[in-house]
């Protein structure tokens, strides 16, 4: 197995891969610098004093984690990429019920470009509404930091936040197109990583007993290993290919395997679920005098509370099934297999093969969905056992799943470039790319 240093040298030798990685790092640096630009009309010094006195936990604290701290700093990137993800969810839901969008999804690249364009327009509209809610909340909680008339602040905040989200969306698309990895996921991940050093330092200084801290690190390591194991877990279905004689050559006659991942949806369900959890609090900000909406907002912003954990768990399980149904098409797999002369032993080609694959997929998705839901609410259990809220978010939940999922996806893309140039990747035994000798 090649050493990490050797793999890094191989990466640097490939000009295209080196350029892609440097481009990605440059875009991420631009994003991090932009997260420190404050909205017009805000006194950053006064706002920092107010934030030091207020509770920065709950759902808003989690949102602040995703946008790299820009939410509480009242930055132009305060809403981050979440409006774009919400728009993507809407169109994927519409694709399941509207024939017109289903038709576009089946039209290949042209249909995807059309849906992407509509998603961008929807992102602007959603950001407009969320920016108004954000400005109202900022006025209510940190009004002393606003040094311009209210009408000017609201107008500039809506324009700046909308422009900031569109710019972040554009940065993510550039990473996906010219960089390495999924740009949207990497932007979210870099915001989460920015909080890890401070959270780790606070946890160390906050523990009087070093042994307890070491137990927490060990538990975090085990949880991370378990997440990696389930994320990479597959159910392999044997596929037999019939022999074909073409001239003097014989093709086929071999047994291969169709890998079905336990977590075929990846990190997307928990990102989708997190976006959905922001909707009730956004509506609650529009009705500050409504007892009902304030109760709903409170219940859906306490990330360590019972109702938040229950709702979040259910939404994660639902979106795991939903996204798996979108990402994996058993009928298409069966048709491709039949065209290539392949069949599953004991199963007839065609409809029965499609039903067999769908049955297996449903069975393995169930534990995968429960796993994602459990990991999503694991920070609540960590906080219950005395872990500080900031560090508890890395024991599971959205933070850990995003970090693991995005890291594995990026490593797979890097290794694809390495293998195309006949270099060994990070792991020769196949844990990352499932390669077998």
Automatic annotation (TrEMBL):
Membrane found in the keyword field: yes
Annotated Pfam families: SecY (PF00344)
PROSITE patterns: SECY_1 (PS00755), SECY_2 (PS00756)
Highest taxon in the source lineage: Bacteria
Record carries keyword Cell membrane: yes
InterPro entries, per the entry: SecY, SecY/SEC61-alpha, SecY_CS, SecY_dom_sf
GO cellular component: plasma membrane
Gene Ontology process terms (BP): intracellular protein transmembrane transport; protein targeting; protein transport by the Sec complex
Transmembrane segments: 21-39, 70-97, 118-136, 151-171, 183-202, 208-230, 264-286, 306-328, 364-385, 391-411
Membrane-related topology note: Multi-pass membrane protein
Location of this chain's protein in the cell: Cell membrane; Membrane
Main location: membrane
Function: The central subunit of the protein translocation channel SecYEG. Consists of two halves formed by TMs 1-5 and 6-10. These two domains form a lateral gate at the front which open onto the bilayer between TMs 2 and 7, and are clamped together by SecE at the back. The channel is closed by both a pore ring composed of hydrophobic SecY resides and a short helix (helix 2A) on the extracellular side of the membrane which forms a plug. The plug probably moves laterally to allow the channel to open. The ring and the pore may move independently.
Classification via NCBIfam families: 3a0501s007 (TIGR00967)
Description of how the protein assembles with itself and partners: Component of the Sec protein translocase complex. Heterotrimer consisting of SecY, SecE and SecG subunits. The heterotrimers can form oligomers, although 1 heterotrimer is thought to be able to translocate proteins. Interacts with the ribosome. Interacts with SecDF, and other proteins may be involved. Interacts with SecA.
This protein's name: Protein translocase subunit SecY
